[in-house]
Design a protein that fits this description.
Shape: globular
Distance between the termini: 41 Å
Number of domains: 2
Strand order of the largest sheet: 10-11-19-14-21-12
Cofactor: L-ascorbate; Fe(2+)
Oligomer: single chain
Structural class: alpha+beta
Helix content: 10-25%
Pathway: Amine and polyamine biosynthesis; carnitine biosynthesis
CATH architecture of the largest domain: 4-Layer Sandwich
CATH topology of the largest domain: Double-stranded beta-helix
InterPro entries: AlphaKG_dependent_hydroxylases (IPR050411), GBBH-like_N (IPR010376), GBBH-like_N_sf (IPR038492), TauD-like_sf (IPR042098), TauD/TfdA-like (IPR003819), Trimethyllysine_dOase (IPR012776)
Strand content: 15-25%
Radius of gyration: 28 Å
Largest sheet: 6 strands, mixed
Protein name: trimethyllysine dioxygenase
Family: Belongs to the gamma-BBH/TMLD family.
CATH class of the largest domain: Alpha Beta
């Protein structure tokens, strides 16, 4: 075991190709100061055939000298093909667009290293057998070496991203002011943090006009256009053949289950309500309901996670919208794996053909249980929207509905896409450089911007 700090020699460390050569000893690592007579060179080893990775891995992996790695641990391994493909020089990554410009699939499958130069506190330079000279900042290598995937969960297990749930009837719900949100990005971050953490947020003192409400949404991202249009300004006139355009009771549901990519955020602002009453707004925390379901009956939770259901939007003559595939009620992130989405809309659920009778009864039993949880009084948050207070919520998490009403209500609002919301949220929560430095990161740690899904 090498003791003490590592100091890397300046200049080139000439090495022979290690492709196909077994147990090759390559470049030297200098221990101690290069200015003292005590400094000495020790051989730095690439992976050998008899390592735990085996003979096949020996020819495909490499260890690079790194001054930031601890000396009491083996240097991490990199796949050579991956390392060549992910060179960070401006010939491989466009310095402005940050897009990959290397011709990935023209790289020889037997790509190998010819020479390594490891200057102190500078990017490591690697000469490749195809003639390219790559550059690898130590910070890039430190965060990019191979990590084991997240531990898989058992068949019935569901895990959740961090979230907090409001109690029905509590004195105050998450709220920000319109003027603050319009004035500073810090207030926008506080607004989005409320939405992500609690599932919804009110915006008080919103000017009672569509233009101001539209400007509020644009503080997050562009408004998503659907077959309902972009920004809405509507009354219950059935202009679109959807229950939302009636004055009838609406049970708790999520929107856009008929889309492959449902909208993530949804905002409502009541502009007026004349000659009538009713129309109270309902919110139910779908994550909390799923957690209760998993505690009360893990098999039911598994069923709603595994069995896909079709959906459609076909009320208008020129539309019959269905998702690309049948999605389950509970959407679990593939890489984390954490529950990140609820798709629950019995109004839009379509006819499912591809299941046995036993599968049908299993799903209906699980869905009946989930529906019963959603209807429990201690799950239902009822509020009365008023002109001047906008409500925005996470459509991937919160189910919404309303009570029946009389009279004429005028409502405005719109959708924001999932990817656009998360982009804005992550960039406001973290510095842009930190976000870019973690592209592709699936570690379940709070410092990882992509842990926030």
């Amino acid at each position: 075991m090498i003791k003490g700090p590592l100091h890397w020699t300046f200049g080139s460390q000439k090495i022979a190709s290690s492709f196909g050569q077994k147990g090759l000893m390559v470049p030297s690592v200098q221990i101690g100061s290069p200015r003292t007579s005590r400094s000495r060179r020790l051989p730095f080893q690439y992976l050998r055939e008899d390592s735990s990775l085996g003979a096949r891995a020996y020819s495909r992996t490499v260890q690079l000298p790194r001054p930031n790695w601890q000396t009491d641990k083996p240097s991490p391994a990199f796949g050579k093909l991956w390392l060549r493909d992910n060179c960070q020089c401006p010939k491989c990554i466009h310095p402005d667009t940050k897009q990959r410009i290397v011709q990935s699939f023209s790289i020889p499958h037997d790509i190998d290293i010819v020479d390594v130069v490891a200057p102190r506190d500078q990017p490591i330079r690697v000469e490749w057998s195809d003639g390219h000279v790559g550059r690898y900042p130590p910070s890039f290598l430190d965060r990019s070496h191979v990590n084991p995937p997240n531990k898989p969960t058992k068949r019935g297990d569901l895990q959740w991203r961090p979230f907090e749930t409001c109690t029905p009837g509590q004195k105050q719900y998450p709220t920000v002011s319109y003027s603050a949100v319009m004035a500073s990005d810090k207030a926008v971050w506080e607004w989005l943090e409320n939405i992500y953490r609690w599932g919804f947020c009110f915006v008080k003192d919103t000017p009672v006009n569509p233009g101001a409400t539209e400007a509020l949404l644009n503080r997050i991202a562009f408004i998503r256009s659907t077959h309902y249009g972009g920004f809405w300004d509507f009354t219950a006139d059935l202009a679109f053949k959807d229950t939302a355009y009636t004055n009838e009771f609406l049970g708790a549901h999520t929107d856009n289950t008929y889309f492959t990519d449902p909208a993530r955020l949804q905002l409502f602002h009541l502009l007026s309500h004349e000659n009538g009453d009713g129309g109270a707004s309902l919110l139910v925390d779908g994550f909390q309901a799923a957690k209760i379901l998993a505690e009360e009956n893990p098999d039911h939770a598994t069923t709603l996670r595994k069995v896909g259901q079709p959906a459609h939007a076909s009320g208008n003559e020129n539309h019959c919208i269905t998702p690309q595939q049948h999605y389950p009620v509970f959407g679990r992130h593939v890489g984390m794996p954490l529950l990140f989405q609820i798709r629950w809309n019995n109004y839009d659920r379509s006819i499912k053909w591809d299941w046995s009778v036993d599968d049908q009864y299993e799903w209906y039993e699980a869905a009946r249980h989930f529906d019963e949880i959603l209807r429990r009084p201690n799950m239902e948050i009822w509020t009365q929207l008023e002109p001047g207070t906008a409500l925005i919520f996470d459509n991937f998490r919160m189910l919404h509905g309303r009570s029946a009403f009389t009279g004429k209500r005028r409502m405005c609002g719109g959708y924001i896409n999932n990817d656009d919301f998360l982009s804005r949220y992550r960039l406001l929560k973290f510095e842009r450089k930190h976000v870019l430095n973690n592209l592709g990161n699936l570690k379940r740690v709070e410092q990882n911007p992509f842990f926030y899904i």
